[in-house]
Amino acid sequence: MAGKRRGEGKLAGAAPEGLATALIHHPYVAPAGFDAIAPGVFKASTVLFENVAALRAHSWLEKASYSYGLHGTPTSFTLEARLATLEGGTHALLAPSGLAAVALVNQALLSSGDALVLPTNVYAPNRNHAVNDLARWGIAHRFYDPMDPASLEAALGPDTALVWMEAAGSVTLEFPDLRALVRLVRARAPQAVIAMDNTWGAGIAYDAFDLGPGPGEEGGPALGADLTIHALTKYPSGGGDMLMGSVVTRSKVLYERLALAHSRSGIGVGANDVEFVLRALPTIALRYAAQDAAARRIAAWATGRAEIARVLHPPTPGSPGHAHWASHCRAAAGLLTLEFDARYTGAQVDAFVDALRRFGIGWSWGGPMSLAVPYRPEALRGPGSAYRGGLVRLCIGLEDVGDLIADLEQALAVFGVRSPT
Ligand SMILES: Cc1ncc(COP(=O)(O)O)c(C=O)c1O
Q1: Residue 232 Cα: closest atom of ligand 1
Q2: For the segment 166-200, what is each residue's pLDDT rounded down to a tens digit?
Q3: Where are the beta strands (DSSP E) in 159-266?
Q4: Region at 6 (left for phi over 0; alpha for psi -120 to 50; beta for the rest)
Q5: What whole-number distance in Å separates Cα of residue 137 and Cα of residue 225?
Q6: Atom of ligand 1 at shortest range from CA of 243
Q7: pLDDT single digits (tens) 233-259
């Protein structure tokens, strides 16, 4: 066992110890050698040391030993190792939510006078953090259109310390030419760290650290992000019932910068939540594939409907960046956004969502229940947005696809037109 041997060191001649003392310092230690499919769940704020020398010798950066509950237990180290494998990295850290992982990256890598660069379709709270908090701390931000590499080029400069990428983008699901964007950053701002929000790809759709050669290109050194964040809240947990995030990297130097900021910030995770993710991780590939297949069937049903102007869904031809998706990815998340015909009002689009019976109304995706959220394009992307009609993002769960299509079909009645299909 770790720590002093329990129950040892009774004082000679002392009175028998009380029951509470006996229970807290109980000498029984279960025999070593137990193994099972699920790793053990160790819960600790206090970590016990064998002796004072061991307490003094600990390192918060090395995962070869334990120091404090906040900095890791066998349970959290196990999840970190598995997440590094999932995403093709070598080092991982856990945070209490995906957004906490985003904030950790920003906090660890940015200083006053630096600039960070974000895509216009970045996860909105990431943008809000830059605009409201980082700006207050003297960190500038500039946005780029991820579908236009020239706009990224214009946003880069000698002050650029961090570039965020997200594929596909939040809600409108544009898939950028990631290889072109990464090459640009390496050429024009070699000092900048590239951070990928890998929540959509989940380590399954594409390799964020090694995007591979493009069509007609020779394979060369790995071209990809320097670090990823992942909202484990989504596919890794798979239940819609918890929050957690991770940061993964292949760089020991970056890991140490992140781990130091992590250890100073107090952003620990609870062992029960880690257990949830460890339990769900073995089935992530199966769930991701099932949700991908279901979303493709729904996208095929929606394509060409009279009420729907466009289906935003990277595997669907005509979706922004479809060709980039095809050249980077082997799968897709079960998310699609319906752009309704611009003749419908926002109130009609809201009524469509209200009429759905098998889709919950809610934000956080990746769980068993399908979800729908309406967005007004001008509120989402500002005036002059490329999107004209009301948007409804669908997150496809694990229900029978036929039931979901029947539900969407009946809800379309709110528009009062008969589709030609
Ligand atoms: C792309 C993306 N990144 C990050 C997050 C943040 O995850 P969390 O809800 O765990 O903070 C989300 C959540 O919706 C997301 O969609």
Answers
A1: 10
A2: 999 999 999 999 999 999 999 999 999 999 999 99
A3: 160-166, 193-197, 227-231, 245-249
A4: beta
A5: 26
A6: 10
A7: 999 999 999 999 999 999 999 999 999
